[in-house]
Fold these 4 entries.
Entry 1:
Amino acid sequence: MKVEQAKQIANKAIEELAAALNANPSEALTSYLKTVAKFHKYSFHNILLIAMACPQATHVAGFHTWRTLGRHIKKGAKGIRIFAPVFRRRAEQTDTQTNDELLSTGASLVVGFRAVYVFDESMTEGKPLAELNSVHGDPSDYRERLERFIEEQGIALEYSTDIAPARGTSHGGKITILPGQSPAETVETLAHEIAHELMHRGDRRTSTTKRQRETEAEAVAYVVANAIGLQATSASADYITLWNGDAALLAQSLEIIQRTAAQIIAVTSEGPAPPK
């Protein structure tokens, strides 16, 4: 594919994405945000306990939380034991204050810990969780093409479950991808992390916010995915909205988004397919 043709494809996709972001947040995004709000944040110690008991864990919550999400614990499933702090209000606090208020003001004391049990999504069944940033379609041999491009850039690539629940990470010269994703998701994730490597490993890393970097990387992934025939329109727009990536923010980054997306599209679309 010629560079000019790749630029035209990238420009059209960016225009569509900006239009999507100008609309109100979708129902899928609203559902996702409600789901995220249900899950607790765990301490480092409890994360280790969860990882040891269930290395493949992705979404973990208690019995009652799963019920509010329309799911129930499978018969025979064994919970993961973690430790929850027990709080006591300071003497000067009134009984009308809620625990959340006390925690936010630092007005409570941790007087101990109690064992509680949580369950991974794989231990539950019922209503599907709201998904975000999913992508569908047949990526053909583009995974191999992207992997070859990564190698040509001198970037190390590995597939590891250690990064779960993240789908991919980028650490200056190394990309790690979570195995087990669908072929389309793997390609989209590869494009996202390649974008980080190309755009955010120089001066722009210190001159941009994390919000802007994520917006830019997902915009590039969106453009690449759509250019090769994958369906990622709504999901990518929702993901960017999470980072407050509105059209104005995209406009500030359009040049580098367009240039990076066009580079990936052009390079991975030319020449014979790589050997498998």
Note: The CA atoms of residues 204 and 213 lie 9 Å apart.
Entry 2:
Amino acid sequence: MIRVALVENETLVREGLRRVLELDAGVRVEAEARDGVEALELLPRLRPDVVLLDVRMPRLDGLAVLAGLARESTPVPCIVLTTFDDADAFLAAVRAGARGYLLKDASSEELGQAIRAVASGGTWFKPAVSEAVLRGLSSVAPDPPRDGVAADLTARELEVLRLLAGGYSNREIGDALGVAERTVKNHVASILGKLWVRDRTRAVLKALSLGLL
């Protein structure tokens, strides 16, 4: 059972999310918070598996919540929810440590898929972000991409990269490709090095900006 916390200041939206999640037998709504202040009081103590986090809230917004959680030794994974396809909000959320990003009009099926991907250690940034977001991705990683990076990635590494973009865990990628989880870890480490990024989220974003996905 995946334990989910809802952080949303609009009562109708929060209640709607709860009702949708109650239809999913594999998910349980563990807690709710009406703003960022309540969230930072609840989340470190309850340690849910996934947080659905609104960006724009009174008193303390979603980005401030992400920053506060990042100070924990093992931050609770968050999926940012927003009404608008906002490039600035997307990039700020990724920089702050969001593991997923969804528009509030996402289907219940996609919401469930995103929750499961993030709960298993993956990310969820699909469907592909908009052109406005892609134009801003160059600022996500400080190191400039090397020439010929697409050519540097092997065919298997590109397969792994596409599965990373889908939010799959190392174990799930290994099962899909018929290889050991340790082999997947080696591929991921190689991808991070070739893309000059520090983690899986930035690898997916850099790959999007380079047109590899």
Note: DSSP finds eleven helices and five strands in the chain.
Entry 3:
Amino acid sequence: MLNGKKIAVVIPAHNEEKLIKKVLSTIPSFVDSIIVVNDLSKDRTKGIVEEEKKKDKRVKLVNHEKNLGVGAAIVSGYKISLEQGDDVTAVMAGDFQMAPSELQSIVGPVVKGEADYVKGNRLFTGEAWKKIPKIRYIGNAFLSLSTKIASGYWHVADSQCGYTAISNETLNLLDLNNIYPRYGFPNDLLVKLNVVNAKVIDVPVTPIYGVGERSGIKIWRVIPLISLLLIRLFFFRIKEKYIIRDFHPLVFFYLFGTLLFLSGSLLGLYETYLKMARGISPPAATITLVAMLIILGLQSIFFAMWFDMEYNRELK
């Protein structure tokens, strides 16, 4: 326990035979329950965890009969933590990319009631650029920026970091059966948390690479999929938060801004086509109209973003 709060740690694991033992053996003593969710590993992960269960009574093993994805594995752990009556549930990877020594920093704000959800931030210092593989760093930066817009948590800098902690009281507000089950899980969860007005903060953590971990993430496949997910989540959040549960004029700014920008862009493309294909130069008035539509559209969208930032200011 920590400050009288029961702490659970969920460890989603898929083919983690190399490092899962090291992760389990270094979990701090204040943790009451360690829930390993074996997402149909094809290596020795299951057997290693079963051996560790004999040494550490805190360890519990959940086996998925199908490979459901990292998000689904985390949700399985969340549900068990809720059933056990824990107070705070943290998530750590099974590949030792998250330092167990930093777990107290992650769960601390939730235990103290300062936050409903804490995310690790690997980008807080310049060390991240040196330690994280460059293609993953760039992909993470792009998705983090996109997630700021989609989720409304403009202060969350590292959306893809899986080192997290959440209060079980907040978990009870979420529909755990309706959260994205794979690599888009952290993005989806942030959007759902914003809808219920959960307070989220970043905590600096150390990026750990080169310890024998093996990533199953293929950036060229993940980024397009999560980008499409984020577009859908953005519209979901705007509808749920600013139309159904409350009303805010930023809806009009986003709507009109998008219409103006698209109209200006399409007109500009059409005039460019006429110029290049037929040699017809657009009149000055048309060029001015295109510029005005695009500029007014962008201004309206930026105003909507500013309204969104102000509305969510208290959630950090």
Note: DSSP finds eleven helices and seven strands in the chain.
Entry 4:
Amino acid sequence: MHLTPEELLSRLEAAGYEFSTTRHPPLFTVEESRRLRGEIPGRHTKNLFLKDRKDRYFLLTVGEDRAVDMKQVHLLIGAAGRVSFGRPEQLMEYLGVIPGAVTAFAVANDLEGKVRAFLDRELMENEWINAHPLTNEATTTIRRDHLIDFMAATGHEPAIVDLCAESPVPIHAD
């Protein structure tokens, strides 16, 4: 059973993480969420749920305005060949969220370790990170180090990589 947004926030609180959550109307795209700029401090994110040809899944979290080169990113994440977007059915099955609500927090729902998590190096330059708390009807602002700790505690130690590198240095695929 997947965590609810309330259960996620309870876990963050129980762990002693510093965070705040702002409720808002549902937001499905980065463009829609831009209207909240100035109201919510911190670096806003976008997330890509990807799969490779061996049906391995990846969750990439980057700053909202960063451009990920879909023709090259497989070299950075160790995917088997080029990647494509994962289907909504797998997104729900593995991460427990719908398109438009994809978030780094969703790794808490991947109990079988099917999804490898990556955080963009540029994103890690920010003290405060904004992510949906498993719903696109809210934004949770959390300290960078607390987000990393939370992800690691779920068994998803995030790899920190320059996901938008112009000249990617390949890592070996598993």
Note: The first helix runs from residue 5 to 14.
